[in-house]
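Good morning C.,

I know you're traveling, so I'll keep this short. The sequence:
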Amino acid sequence: MHIFRDENGIRLVVSHQLGHFAARFADYAPEQEFINYELSKDKRGRYHLVIEKTNLTELASPVFNHDLVFGDMGDSLTPIDGVTLMLI
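The tokens, ready to paste straight into the viewer:
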């Protein structure tokens, strides 16, 4: 996962590699921000992203307590304003 912040919010770019992973922001952050997540694929070929643990305030919304489903690689989701997830 690559994490970007800009004036439009936060973008999480997720690799299509399946499994459990941890992503961290810059090492110089006073309180390091992190995301632990799992990416899996169902028998229909859809990718399921599960945010397992994070300290990012942008991801505190209840929508992130459920699977986020990508139809295929190249898809993007914007579950709430200011947060975009992209699968590459």
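Safe travels,
E.
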